[in-house]
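Regression test attached.
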Amino acid sequence: MTVAFAEPATVAIPTLTTARLRLRAPGPEDFEAYAAFGASSRAAGVGGPFGRADAFRNFCALIGHWRMRGYGRWVVAERETDAPLGIVGPMYPEGWPEPEIAWTVFEAAEGRGVAFEAAQAARAFAYGTLGWRTAISCTLPGNTRSEALARRMGAVEDSVFQHPDGFELKVWRHPAPEAL
Amino acid sequence: MSAIVETERLILRRPEAADLPFYAAYYTGSRARFVGGPVDAAKAFEKFCAMIGHWAVRGFGRFVFLARGEARPLGHAGALRIGDGGPAELTWTIWDGRDERRGYASEAAAAARDHFFAATGERGMVALIARDNAASRRVAERIGGQLDEEAASPPWSPGAVTYRFAREVAR
């Protein structure tokens, strides 16, 4: 057997900076915060709560999505401390009706407009850098905080997505790039 | 650990987007019955994303292997650590039944195991195999795995039997 060391097969994940936040590549150091979120009742808004093994796989998949699609979700970090506050960005899982802007914030970041600030940056990236002509966001029934954010982003109710796992997601349509 | 591993007949490299249709065909088909499948296309995509992302989180992972000079991927083999501690898992899978019985899984798994030991300095690995997956158990035995009847299977592989690999037996 011969072993040849090659360059890491990674995708360059860009960093976005906003007034208070840094949207950056997820890394191993973020997993504890992600697993804590996954185990909490807050994860009900994204189909959880889920155990640590599932959280680990989901976290790995979050990174792998970048390689598959060329874009993906960032860890939203506090600019001052780099502490992870949530997961926000464009994503397009297999079976999804179309690409979406997704947002999740951890408990410590609740009520400070973190998701709004990050989602605005993510949408601007999708429209400006990725060239999307439209964008959706999906919310689970009863996730009123997420619905409120969709409205604050200017999105309107569009349709219902029947998820293959047997539940429904409300689809919100964002304003087109030229309307922003 | 970032590498391409070469064996006599095979190239092992990191998973790439173009591998997904081959991986998904495996995971949505009956051959995946030994690993919790079959699953739908959406779940196969998630699992493939996770296989790629594992490299970034752990620094090691599972390779996709191909016969030298051919473009069609044959399967995956390599190291996996889902839980926080304990030995890494050694996994191997032939995606399409027509590629079985050629010794590819043994060749890929042995190379991935030796590479893992050399690159990480760790001393042991385990393979968790469905009790009735006779073909995969033969691979474990062929490449020097020691059956551990006492080992309990983890929650993500219920009912699996454990084979242990020690660095000392790696060649």
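Expected vs. actual: identical. Chain B touches chain A at residues 2-7, 13-14, 16-17, 20, 40-42, 44-58, 82-84, 111, 114-115, 118, 154-156 (CB under 8 Å).
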